[in-house]
Design a protein that fits this description.
It is a single chain. By secondary structure, the protein is mainly beta. The chain has no helices and nine strands. Strands 2, 3, 5, 6 and 8 form a five-stranded antiparallel β-sheet that branches. The chain is globular.
Length: 130
């Protein structure tokens, strides 16, 4: 799998509470990921989580870089048992309907974890073998 630092939302981002991705992606003015070739996305656990009940990942978009009024394009939730190193969220592409800016929003359910990290971003292709 090929990762590029300019298209990463999170690079081993530690999540000990609900948070947005460290980085956002600027698609540029007048840009939209609309119909056409799917844009692959990777959201992968790189350090086991503990204590929380579940983690929800939301793909958010906005015209404003400060995300003053974000729209959520899609969400995915994983329970604690599935938040182990190497596990991926079933968010495999950036959906249609994006505006200029994209980010991920991570929502912790239950007790705040003391450990757990995510790497996420747009990738050349999603590796399917394990």
């Amino acid at each position: 799998m090929i990762l590029d630092s300019t298209t990463l939302f999170s690079d081993a981002q530690s999540l000990t509470a609900s948070a947005v991705s460290t980085n956002k992606i600027d698609l540029g003015p007048g840009r939209d990921i609309g119909p056409g070739v799917a844009v692959p996305l990777l959201v992968q656990v790189v350090e086991d989580f503990d204590r929380l009940t579940a983690l929800t990942v939301e793909i958010q978009t906005d015209d404003d870089e400060g995300f003053s009024n974000p729209d959520t394009l899609v969400t995915s939730r994983r329970e604690l048992a599935d938040l182990k190193r190497g596990r991926r969220f079933p968010l495999s592409v950036i959906p249609e309907g994006s505006r200029r800016f994209l980010r991920l929003n991570y929502v912790v359910s239950g007790t705040a974890p003391t450990q757990g990290k995510i790497t996420s971003g747009i990738v050349w292709g999603v590796q399917s073998n394990r």
